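Problem 12. The chain below contains 309 residues. Write out its predicted structure in token notation.
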Amino acid sequence: MREDKRQRLEEVARLYYERDLTQAKIARQLGVSRPFVSRLLAEAKAAGIVEITIHSQVPASQALRAALQTAFRLQDAALVADGEDGATNQALGLAALELIERAGGGRLGLGWGHVIGSLVADLEQRPPVVSAVTDVTPLVGNGGVPIRHYHSNENTRIVAQQLQARAHYLHAPSLAETAHDLDLVVQTEHYQSVKAEWERLDVALVNIGTYPSTPDFASVARYGNLLTVRRAVGRLIAYYFNQQGEIIHSDQDYAIQVPLAILAKVPRIIGIASANVSPEALLGALRTGCLTDLVAREGVVAAALDRAT
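Solution.
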């Protein structure tokens, strides 16, 4: 392969897997078509420039997985090898889809965040498939930020389309400005219909993120200094928790998301930890008792287990 050709393939691969740009954005940046970018990415894989590997069945991984399930009484877990963040997040997304299928699919509640956004972007580039998922519903309102990973309804639309399932939308922001605004949303017939979908969920895919992070979703307005005082380490959907697994509540929190009491009744709640999540955040998430299953990279799981002992 010519050196200039190889450099071109490596450039496109880095933009897609390391910088997490969509194929459409790469196409605009390079002045080419999106299908041409897709072909370049396929060539990069064929040439060995890009390798995506899920190591969930090697002996060391099996032992780590068994220790994780025993320590936190998880029903199932999928671990992927440590690697560059972009490729690892893609592998985590694929592993999450496989775990959802193993859990039986059915009615899926979808969280948000970087790693779930990576899953959605990857799904969008693949042909639609017949899956065990029948319905997809967002677990939180649309984030008012210019980051695709937090556009809950759009993510729901794409996942439902690619898995050939029905989409249900939550036409509300992720955060109301006042308690009165929140009450108005909750009382609407639309919200009540979404709530009914939440109450029928078979499986939920929820993001695990590190605190503090960007975006922070008006954490100061919602919590004042409470997150600092209570030593928050991470976030599930838009709920914050500390390393002891305590969910931090505030009277000023007007987030529009699935209530914890409803989430707790979902038979399978799969936590997916992005490649850069901290061990403290993962440990706190596991200690909340909200999760029945986990998708994470091996290194952070091992570090979290070390901190748990």
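Discussion. The first strand starts at residue 76 and ends at 80. Students who got a different answer should revisit the alignment rule from Section 12.3.
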